[in-house]
Fold each of these.
Amino acid sequence: MGGIVYGGKFEKLMNELSSPENVAATAKKFRDLESQYGPYSFGKFVKLTTPQAGEYTNWEADAGGIPEPIQNRLTEIISTNFRSASPMPMMLKVGDNIDTTHELHVRNFVYNGQLYIGLHMLCPNSDLT
């Protein structure tokens, strides 16, 4: 999963869904999907929550290429946040790493007076793969 693949439209869509204006509605939809389809795991609801689901035809293979510990960490962060009574907005940034590994950096930060969960996903460097 190169950063170029999911760094554009997908990143923008996820940031819109998790923005301060939309995070409560997204969290409600997330909880409704869990009620209908069972507990969340990383990437499980992408095709159910994105209006352009057809653009993610390789999603399962691409998401499956992310190491399990990173998938588990993303599952933990996203599900805990969306299940909470007061979900926080999240900001996703996807890009190429300097080597051929995946990395995830998670950090809380304040932007325009609002506390966010920051997710910085680094994917294998496309120049090296």
Amino acid sequence: MYEAACAGDERRLARLIDTGHGSAEYFSTHTCEGCTGNDLVVMWKHEYGVRLTALARLLETPPRWSQGGVTYVQANRVAVFARGTQEISPQWSGFYPDCAAESLCRSLSGHPEPTGAREG
């Protein structure tokens, strides 16, 4: 995954998303109903302005959390890798390019709720 991000290889990242959990519907990211791995990569690029090299730089930081998997946090971005089991290898399980837009991402990253946020 790191090599694909460094190379800016969108197709390879999309394949990793689609095959890591069986489909993109189980990959944690910003809402994208019925999306494929390719749809997610395109969304990150066009809607959030993410360059794939920024994802690679995120993975070069020390992990913030390692219980139950590994979580990388850098500025407003989070990448999550599931721990795996004896039957299932560890997998890339989530990427949030903008924590301000997603409460789960804020909780993973330790970012506070936006000012004026209301409980729903």
Amino acid sequence: MGIVVKFLLILLVVALVIGMVVRLFRKPTRPVETGPKKQRMPLIVPLIGWLLLIAGVGMGLAGFSARQGTDPVPMRIGSVVALILGLIVLLLHRNRYVQTGADGVRFRTFLGRQGEIAYRDVTTYTVAEAGWRSRLQLRAGDGTRLKVNPMVFDMSPALAAIRFKERSGRWPAPGEAR
């Protein structure tokens, strides 16, 4: 049984390396979008998700092919937990994005709910800094709320609209220079 597990692990590693190399050299097939780009979370987040998935598969192979006389239950439970956490982290990275434009912010939450806040519809906003961490919160009149870290996502158009509001007392009209 041990040779089968080693063969499966080697096969898994080879498949992952081939997949990574193919993805590196693949050319994008989607047309180039004009306008603001969807910003996702940092690259470290999906890497952590993939590492958790790989660890879960490895622990699962080891737990389900354990020798007689050993207790494989903790390894099996750990593998399931690592697989589920890896999938959750990958889904969270896939769902969450922020797209700032000249007239508003489009976003999707971790759970997949999409929202859009036009700058002229913002009723309250908060820009707070606590040590090395900052936070921007926008709330629209219809209750839509967005909380982001402007150090992670480029929120410069939103911050420029906030500065315009503080200078002139009103939100910029669509297409108006800031």
Amino acid sequence: MARTVPRTDVLITLMGAPHESDLLTSTLRLTQAVLDRGASVQIWACGYATLLTQRALGDSKPRNLAAWSTDYPSAGRVVRRMLAAHPGALYWYACRFCSDDRGAFAHIPEVPVRAPARYAEHVAAAAKTLHAGVM
């Protein structure tokens, strides 16, 4: 049985390399601000953004030599925490084509992988659609 796409106030399509700019940080801050106002959000990760929720990244980034004892969360852990804090209001999806093309096969369990043909359903289920990153 096919999963239905939940209605949301905003769909953010996150595209592009996640660590070459402030794209990821800006998207996460925007998402949190929208959620704080009581709205619902779905994120569709496409392109290299599909690498953000890989299980292989673990919970922490590699240690920082300048702050050896500080634990910096990985993008996957940040996404997992946000999803847990906003059940029924935040959804994160990864594009199957983009994931396969980049060898990103093992996403965290909270992130379903969807065929790109299903993207139109996500757009239709959102009141507003934003694109963040490379077009």
